[in-house]
Design a protein that fits this description.
The protein has 321 residues and is an alpha/beta fold. The chain has a domain of 195 residues: Rossmann fold (3-Layer(aba) Sandwich). It is 50% helix and 7% strand.
């Protein structure tokens, strides 16, 4: 690309961002804005639901999953960059995005309401003990967690919650490490119901979603007021594995973070990525400790019972699991 072409490209980007900040396309028409959100929770099928919903011809969801604009200090930070995610959504009846920490972060519901008004909210909940283990396994697989066992990760959580240096120095968004705390769903769902109203908040259970994905999707289509007869293509997303060596994966991720945004280190970054993939391929599927899950489930018991009352749903299988 010539210097002139690069200059013209930069000028075009500046104009586009300036227009986006004002909520407009380059031709002056209003930029589309989201009118629904998949607000969580992590490791509960949100990626799959995102992919299924975006197949619907009346629904737009950006390729960029989890922009997390409505979370302080995480994700897309500028309003104009966020709006540009939806620039191709013109003509779609339902426009949405998926950001799993919208459920946990206290500021998100009110912030969304203050900017976008009475949007619709979809939340998928999973047995909190199983979800916590799955989240730990994901962080381990990606090289963001060096705790060698799930039990040790849980033991570290209280100290991490109170440690301001951990917030700034951990390799991933610090709230990703709150395995137990992020599973306290009663408070999270209550906030959304209080702010948006019960009729604008749809809650699904992961355990039902994996058994009847088409039925759940079609119910979501009705909730979003699009054609409920559409049948999405069902595929497995985010199938989990753990690396053979957790310590090696953590080390490789740390090295990758150092070089991944440096053009002159592209070859080194690719090598590190291949080594991480090799380490995962040599590992196996994560296997939770039944006794540990039972202990964790007991810690969640009161919160689950409160959630049962809030939703008017039987969640006894979570307690028995």
């Amino acid at each position: 690309m010539s210097k002139l072409s690069r200059l013209l490209s930069r000028l075009s980007d500046r104009r586009r961002r300036k227009n986006a900040a004002a909520g407009k396309n380059q031709d002056g028409t209003p930029l589309p804005r989201p009118n629904f959100f998949i607000a969580g929770v992590g490791k509960a099928g949100t990626t799959s639901l995102h992919e299924y919903l975006r197949q619907h011809p009346q629904i737009f969801m950006p390729d960029y999953k989890e922009p997390h604009y409505f979370v302080n200090g995480y994700g897309v930070e500028k309003w104009e960059d966020y709006l540009l995610l939806f620039k191709d959504a013109g003509g779609k009846k339902a426009i949405g995005e998926s950001s799993t920490f919208y459920s946990f972060c206290e500021e998100s519901p009110g912030w969304i309401k203050s900017i976008l008004g009475d949007v619709k909210i979809i939340i998928i909940l999973r047995n909190p003990a199983s979800r916590a283990f799955s989240h730990y396994s994901w962080l381990v697989r990606c090289g963001y967690e060096d705790a060698p066992t799930f039990a040790e990760a849980l033991e570290r959580e209280p100290a991490r919650l109170q440690d301001p240096s951990f917030r700034t120095q951990c390799p991933q968004f610090y709230q990703d490490y709150f395995y137990f705390t992020t599973g306290l769903y009663f408070e999270q769902v209550s906030r959304y119901i209080e702010i948006f109203g019960r009729d604008r908040v749809k809650v699904y259970l992961f355990e039902e979603f994996i058994k009847q994905p088409v039925q759940i999707c079609q119910d979501a289509f009705r909730f979003l007021e699009v054609d409920p007869a559409f049948v999405p293509k069902i595929e497995v997303h985010n199938e989990g594995r753990v690396p053979e060596s957790i310590a090696l994966q953590y080390h490789l991720r740390a090295e990758l973070i150092k070089v991944q945004d440096k053009p002159d280190q592209a070859a080194a970054a690719r090598t590190l990525e291949r080594l991480m993939e090799w380490n995962v391929c040599r590992g196996g599927k994560p296997q939770p400790d039944a006794q540990m899950l039972a202990i964790l489930t007991d810690r969640y018991r009161q919160n689950i019972e409160q959630l049962e009352t809030l939703l008017g749903r039987d969640l006894s299988n979570w307690i028995k699991a």
